[in-house]
Specification:
mainly alpha; two-stranded antiparallel sheet; 4 strands
């Protein structure tokens, strides 16, 4: 079984990194989105055929489609019946997946995956290095902790397919790099945890921030931005900067939506946004690596809430020095640690409760967690 850092078509990297990386994303999509795999497998095999047509110096009509390219190579005697049938299967089931609204099954994606293997094996053995050995076929294993959402998968595949097309047009061997390429738009295509694909890039003056997929519609809670709380509240009242997707690509001039704020506020917000993104990445990795755990977060720190800690009552006997917060929590029927919001800084919303009070609660929670671990 392959571990998370490897994938079946890794052996293609010396021949074409672009082909290898598209194949990697197809493998990632088999169990998370059969439709995505089937649709994009067509692009993958069509690129292989284009490389064969280039290698054989065959003239083709501009804008030929996949069927026409299969027919062209077949009529010129370059395809065995087995490879021709595999190509047509990938094409036909891919066409269905791109138009038909029915649910596509894992079994169909696996059949396409097997057909893709036949095509790759043929291509490498006929047009690849003489001493190159293609590994035996292997069914992909489901990776329960490695599923990308469909939109993220589509983003990754479109980026890679663009690179694949560009490498074909240049007719050059892809540069040897340890990491995959990125597009000018900043969308990353490296192997990474679900949600970490760069979906957009924000700019401020000469600085940039890459926004990962899992944060594309994240709520920008003002209390998470200590130097920009009032600024974000005012922007939110104007329906600006409430969620990540509301932010413009260029943050310069954001302050023009509200009165009595300046470019300095945009600069501070941009700096705090960078910190927010890094903190959220840490949290995302934790929740992926430790599924089913209950976390309480405070800024860049966190605690894991065990069953015993979750039952602890939020009373002055257990938590000293924060009676006003405890009273208001009781009024909202938040009576135990397990009922606290995952994002503790939200508690600063209560009357006469500041970030310092929330920090006192968090430090006491950490101390109680350690006592219970030690005991």
């Amino acid at each position: 079984m392959m571990n998370q850092s490897t994938y079946f078509y890794q052996f293609l990297e010396p021949i074409s990194k672009e082909l290898a990386f598209v194949a990697r994303e197809l493998e990632n999509s088999i169990y998370s989105s059969p439709r995505t795999m089937l649709t994009h497998a067509r692009v993958f095999v069509e690129n292989i055929l284009q490389q064969v047509i280039q290698a054989e110096r065959i003239e083709e009509e501009p804008r030929s489609n996949l069927k026409e390219r299969i027919d062209l190579l077949n009529s010129n005697g370059y395809l065995t019946s087995d490879i021709r049938d595999a190509l047509h299967y990938v094409r036909q089931i891919g066409n269905q997946a791109s138009h038909d609204v029915r649910m596509f099954r894992y079994s169909e994606a696996l059949l396409s995956w097997e057909a893709v293997y036949k095509i790759v094996k043929w291509y490498v053995e006929v047009y690849g290095p003489v001493d190159f050995t293609v590994p035996a076929y292997q069914d992909p294993s489901p990776r329960s902790n490695h599923f990308y959402e469909n939109t993220e998968l589509e983003t990754r595949l479109k980026v890679l397919e663009k690179l694949l097309k560009e490498s074909l047009e240049q007719g050059e061997k892809p540069p040897e790099k340890e990491e995959p390429e990125t597009t000018p738009e900043g969308a990353t295509v490296k192997e990474e945890l679900p949600g970490f694909t760069t979906i957009r890039t924000l700019e401020f003056k000469n600085q940039t921030l890459e926004i990962p997929y899992f944060l594309r519609d994240a709520f920008l809670l003002p209390q998470r931005f200590a130097k920009s709380v009032t600024y974000l509240i005012r922007l939110g009242a104007e329906q600006q900067a409430r969620i990540m997707s509301e932010l413009p690509n260029h943050l310069e001039g954001l302050n023009q939506h509200v009165k009595r704020f300046s470019d300095k506020n945009d600069e501070l917000f941009f700096e705090e946004l960078a910190i927010f993104i890094e903190e959220e990445k840490i949290r995302r990795k934790l929740t992926l690596e430790r599924p089913g755990e209950l976390f309480l977060f405070y800024k860049s720190d966190y605690i894991i809430v065990t069953e015993e800690l979750a039952k602890l009552p939020l009373t002055p006997e257990e938590f000293a020095g924060i009676p006003n917060l405890l009273r208001q929590l009781q009024d909202d029927q938040i009576e135990t640690v397990g009922q606290l919001p995952k994002e503790l800084v939200i508690l600063a919303k209560y009357e006469n409760v500041g970030v310092g009070t929330v920090e006192k609660l968090f430090e006491q929670l950490k101390a109680k967690q350690l006592v219970r671990v030690d005991s």
